[in-house]
């Protein structure tokens, strides 16, 4: 992403939606995903699903706005 804008920042909307499950050879339990920024998870985007059995799919989704300063990352 590049901050090419005439404003003070460029705003991007990142969206994720997917079906997740515990693998057939795993143990049923909570599965969590999160957006990361510079390798650090963003706590407000943590998505947790608790499948009732292995290979049982659950859907998770979330979105976040990402602000990139003008002139950044050129």
- The best one-word shape is elongated
Strand content: over 45%
Largest sheet: 2 strands, antiparallel
Count of helical segments? 0
Structural class: mainly beta
Strand elements, count: 6
Order of helices and strands: EEEEEE
| Cα distance spanning the termini | 9 Å
Please indicate the count of domains: 1
What average pLDDT do the residues reach?
86
How do the strands of the widest beta sheet line up side by side? 1-6
Low-pLDDT stretches: none
Q: Please compute the radius of gyration using only Cα atoms.
A: 17 Å
Percentage of residues assigned to helices:
under 10%
Name the assembly state. single chain
Structure write-up:
The structure is a single chain. Helix content is 0%, strand content 46%. With 74 residues, the protein is mainly beta. 1% of the residues are buried. The strands form 3 sheets. A two-stranded antiparallel ribbon has the order 1-6. Strands 2-5 form a two-stranded antiparallel sheet. It has one domain.
Secondary structure topology:
Elements: E1 9-20, E2 31-33, E3 36-37, E4 40-41, E5 47-49, E6 58-69
Antiparallel strand pairs: 1-6, 2-5, 3-4
Describe the structure concisely.
This protein is mainly beta and about 70 residues long. The chain contains no helices and 6 strands.
Which key features would you list for this structure?
elongated, single chain, 74 residues
């Amino acid at each position: 992403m590049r901050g090419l804008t005439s404003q003070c920042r460029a705003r991007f909307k990142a969206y994720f939606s997917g079906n997740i499950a515990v693998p057939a050879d795993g143990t049923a339990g909570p599965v969590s995903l999160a957006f990361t920024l510079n390798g650090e998870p963003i706590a407000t985007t943590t998505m947790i699903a608790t499948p009732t059995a292995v290979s049982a799919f659950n859907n998770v989704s979330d979105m976040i706005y990402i602000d990139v300063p003008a002139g950044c990352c050129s």
